[in-house]
Amino acid sequence: MSFPWAKHYEPKHPLMQWIDSRLPLPRFVYNAIGGGYPVPRNLNYFWNFGVLAGVALVIQIVTGIVLAMHFHSSAAEAFNSVNVGIMRDVNAGWFLRFAHANGASMFFIVVYIHMFRGLYYGSYKAPREMVWLLGVVIFLLMMATAFMGYVLPWGQMSFWGAQVITGFFSAIPVVGDWIRVWLLGGYAPDDAALNRFFSLHYLLPFVIAGVIILHIWALHIPGSSNPTGVEVKGEQDTVPFHPYYTAKDGFGVGIFLIFFTALVFFYPDALGHPDNYIPANPLSTPAHIVPEWYFWPFYAILRAFTADFILPAKLWGVLAMFGSILILFFLPWLDKSPVRSANYRPVYRTLFWVLMVDVLVLGYCGGSPADPAYIIASQLASAYYFAHFLIILPIVSRLERPRPLPGSITEAVLGTTKTA
Amino acid sequence: MATEGDPSVLENPRRRDYLQFAAVAVAGVGAGVTVLPLVNSMNPSADVLAASTTEVDLSAIEPGQAIKASFRKQPLFVRHLTQAEIDQADAVPLGELRDPQSLKERTKEGKAQWLVTLGVCTHLGCVPLGAGEGEAKGDYGGYFCPCHGSHYDTAARIRKGPAPKNLEVPAYTFDTDTKITVG
Amino acid sequence: MTSLLMRSIKFLVGLGFVGVLLIALWGTISGLIREGTPQTAEQALHEHPKELHLPSNGPFGKFDLAQLQRGFKVYEKVCAQCHSLNLVSFRELAGLGYNEAEIKKIAKDWPVKQPVFDNKAGTWGERDNTPADRFPKVYYAANGTPPDLSLITKARHDGAAYVYSLMVGYTEKPDAEGAKKFPEALKSPEGLHFNKYFANLHLAMPAPLTDAQIDTVKYTDGTPTTVDQMAQDVSAFLVWTAEPTMQQRHRFGVAVLIFLIFATILGYGAYRNVWRGMKH
Question: Which residues span the membrane (chain C) (predicted)?
Fold first, then answer.
């Protein structure tokens, strides 16, 4: 690709030569994740999480396809097809179901770490804006997929989650109620909604896979970023992806699977909510509706808007919740600092950790009951969230005086000074 | 310490390179074992395997008549043979048959008049005619499969056409003289 | 002019959101000052479940089949009057250690029958249960809606401990301070019964396990039949009904984890081997 010293694909086996000259797929793979992709030599373990996200997607697609063979997408049968059919009668069905449910959580954990990695090391900055934008698109698609997947078992949280989330759209002036009824295909979640959610839940992962290909394509134009944020200057700064990073990622996948296995086999319900083991009841709302943990920060932002000011509070909440994600699209232009890595930006580094704590506070509040103490914390934390991205970050990126950067990646790695 | 990034380290297996091979091999085994539950989940589930037995009441079936029942979601033929049909079946030399079996082997001791078979043609699985009132019984007076023209005789043995085997006799027992339990 | 607007739009949007949040914050705080957070009767009197030590607890828990059989007996003789177990099949009782003949007999003798629709007559009739059937639904006409118990230990926080606490909680005294503060909350409305482990404090179910049930249940394995023992056993049984494959899950988990730790150590070795001599 863009590095002149990248190794070229030279198939030795006649079969590979035959294929490669007719359909250069082997060459494509070699240049994407093989020996033909030079990668900075100094990536730390946080750079494992892109590959781990890919592994999580594959786990979700494989287990999901098999689960779909046993699932009945009708309001009358969905709960039992999961809780009797899959969990009791289907061979290894309990394993597939727990793997899929906890696989979603693992996917989000990995992607959140991947995103915070990008935030800390400034991976969203030029020339990698497109990589970041496509990543945010993937994140949005994941959220939609996870939400619809959570509806499928048709428990109490499934049903009321569908009710509440589609209720967001009724906040839109004039056409909101019509949009909500259109989304559900009825006045409340029922067969029509369940069937379309199932259909889309099956479709979207493949769309995600497509956008991931674009994400990786866009990444390969400038090449991977690295912890110093200093661009690759020459061959000594890089190693070929294979075998160096395939080996490192293999080890990372092992660690990932150990955590995943511990969840699936020993704590399969730890991240779920007991109410989803109660069949959906359209006449009785659970005492305390919460989404899955990975939506808690956004749920806290939604609930923080309790005052009507020009617009109704509900509309503010929905705007802010979607806005909190849409802001990420503008991040490359909000942070204009030429230095990427927070390692060389003392002020930004502090801000990063404050933001991290802020999001954790939002998450904790989003998973808690709507008591005044939690609402106050959510309001403060939400205010900081918006202030961080829209006010503080643009100003800091202008005024901050960064620490001196190393001359090159190799210089940073070998610890030599100035002479490289 | 080897030279930095020395490609020979990677290309000539030596020293501790068995580690890579071992790691890849173990990962391969793990992936292979992981496929097992995925494949196994497509086998019949416990509720299908437990699919209960079928009871059939024989009291209303007159000689020469047959009824269709359902056993494990497949059609089941229960036929009350007339003496003429029994004689006709017994008269066939076993050597002439594609799937040699006597009527006696295909019925219960002392109950030669009760022929219980699955209604699934052994060719490609259509339901043969002949059990319902007024249906074609084929050239041999038993069952006739309209899909590809297999003819079965009065003992439901294949006599003509593409089917390779006789209609299958499922496991069943007589609870009383007029009631059987299949399965 | 336009470029200035473009440059400052982020600040305007940010200030907008922050401003509205501060207004909302003011509303919350002033509301809090005006009204405070009065303690509710539920907060004062509702209690978390007591601890319950079952062999199935924890990541490596196992079932005690004798206890599960006793728990099934409690369910059969007491709970089954009102609560169904509709997600469980009779054949699954093999997991409790019953043999085929015993299961057939349990199914056949089960007092609630399977409904069957007569296609000729167009009416509903009923037939005996078979091992392949799921436990039939129990229809309950009186006050309250007894939930199906199949998944109850998964469908409540603290699962088995909650069931156990609820069973033995009818006779327990409420918190003295809370009782002094909310004397009204202790009086059950008509047809309801006080239990401090129930979220709303009053529930339609009367104490299901009392000394009156001891003769009905009567353990035959030598275990003394007490209310506390019956409550423990039925909780253990309901852990099993919620996930009969739990023990299998734990067993597979140990094997998978051992394999993965081995493979990952090997993977780490391979990783270090590939990178040897490469400073990074």
Answer: 12-33, 252-271
Burial tier of A200 (Cβ tally within 10 Å: 0-12, 13-18, 19+): middle
Instruction: Tell if the CB–CB gap between C260 and A330 is shorter than 8 Å.
Output: no
Q: Is residue C201 part of a domain?
A: yes
Which of A90, A96, A239 is nearest residue B45 as measured by Cβ atoms? A90
CB of A140 closer than 8 Å to CB of A325: yes
The 10s digit of each residue's pLDDT in A16-45 is: 999 999 999 999 999 999 999 999 999 999
Q: Report domain extents, chain A.
A: 29-278+285-414
Q: How far is C221 from chain B (nearest CA, A)?
A: 30
Q: Note whether A335 and C32 are within 8 A (CB).
A: no
- Does the pTM exceed 0.90? yes
Q: Give the residue from chain C lying closest to B48, CA to CA.
A: C132
Structure tokens at C230: 């019956």
Report the phi/psi class of residue C122: left, alpha or beta, with left for phi > 0 and alpha for psi in -120 to 50: left
Contact A204, A145 (CB under 8 A): yes
Longest dimension (CA), chain C: 91
* d(C-alpha B9, C-alpha B3), whole Å: 9
Quick one: C175 and C251 in the same domain?
no
pLDDT per position as a tens digit, A111-145:
999 999 999 999 999 999 999 999 999 999 999 99
Domain A29-278+285-414 grouped into CATH 1.20.810.10? yes
Contact B27 A250 (CB under 8 A): yes
Kindly write down the DSSP assignment for every residue of C197-252, as one continuous string.
Answer: TSTTSEESS--SSSGGGHHHH--SSS----HHHHHHHHHHHHHHHH-TTHHHHHHH
Give the closest of C134, C159, C256 to A265, CB-based: C256
The mean predicted confidence, pLDDT, of chain C is 93
Task: Give the H/E segment covering residue B151.
Answer: strand B150-153
Nearest by Cα to B79 from B126, B143, B146, B145: B143
Name every residue whose Cβ is closer than 8 Å to that of residue A101 and which is 6 or more positions away in sequence: A268, A271, A272
Cα torsion through C4, C8, C10, C15, rounded to 10: -150
Question: Helices (DSSP H) in A152-292: which residue ranges?
Answer: 156-169, 176-184, 191-220, 246-266
B135, B141 contact by CB (below 8 A) = no
Q: Please give the structure tokens belonging to residue A385.
A: 């969230």
Contact A141, A206 (CB under 8 A): no
Tell me how far the alpha carbon of residue C87 is from its chain's centroid.
14
Read off the amino acid at residue C56: S
Q: Which residues from chain C sit within 8 angstroms of residue A394, using beta carbons?
A: 10-11
Say if CB A337 and CB A402 are below 8 A apart: yes
Tokens for C200, please give them: 């709303």
